[in-house]
Specification:
By secondary structure, this protein is α/β, with parallel strands linked by helices. 39% of the residues lie in helices and 16% in strands. An eight-stranded parallel barrel has the order 1-2-3-4-5-6-8-9, surrounded by six helices. The longest helix has 25 residues. Keywords: Flavoprotein, FMN, Monooxygenase, Oxidoreductase. It holds the Pfam family NMO. Belongs to the nitronate monooxygenase family. NMO class I subfamily.
Amino acid sequence: MMIDKLRLPVVAAPMFLVSGPEMVIAAAQSGIIGAFPTPNCRTVADLDAWMTRIVAETQGAPGLWAANLVTHSSNQRLADDLALIAKHKPPIVITALGSPAPAVETVHGYGGIVLADVISVALGRKAAAAGADGLVCVSAGAGGHTGFLSPFAFITALRAEFDGIICVGGGIADGAALAGAIAAGADLVYMGTRFLAAEESMAIPGYKQMVVDSGIEDLVVSPAITGTPASWLIPSLVACGYDPRDLGKPATRDYGGDPHAKWKDLWAAGQGVGTVRAVEPVAQIVDEIETGFRAAAQRLGQCAGAR
């Protein structure tokens, strides 16, 4: 399995308006998986250029790269994005906000694997039936579009009936939490917020500083912005004129048009926000995660040995 060669079983999760070529390349070169959402590119030409660069600069890297594809029916660029996926052949394609079915034939055709974002066991079953090789359990505590199940309960429920790859995300932001998720049965762990303030992140300086300055109490979950429940930084909502105590009704769910213009000043983060204490390069963040992961694994070994 291609993920077995990774230095750590971590995905630098695809983040809207945050994940770009620099972060994807740095993650792959650091021995993990770097991912980005295709809507981060305003045009198909931009996406072609990004993928061309990523392919060139990740050849021989100890890690991998992944493209995150919105398969919701409102994504008017889906066919064009799929054509570029067929051209550049990302080893992993992560589908979101819809069935993985549109991507499966294309990705399997060149030997890649498809992971599907899911927020419930029922959606996990549907994604597996549609041909997904793995499931990304978007759990409570995730940044951006979030879930509501405990990561550990979610892993257990899916593992009981699915033997493919299970990736889990939701407030998992350091090496100890990574070790706990792997011990619980996950194959991979999504970490988004932990990389949000990375030097290679496309987040603007004000966003990065807000992440550094914020803690778990500075978050609110609401569907009022995108139509799907998402975890937002309260200070960014206030700066844009929202009342975080009354964000109103859910917005119309629409991922077409120009989302850059719609949401560029509204900033998301997950419950791991308190672990981000400085703006650091991706390589240093991965080093810190590995140190914590090895220490946690040693503690687990000692516990097992004591019994």
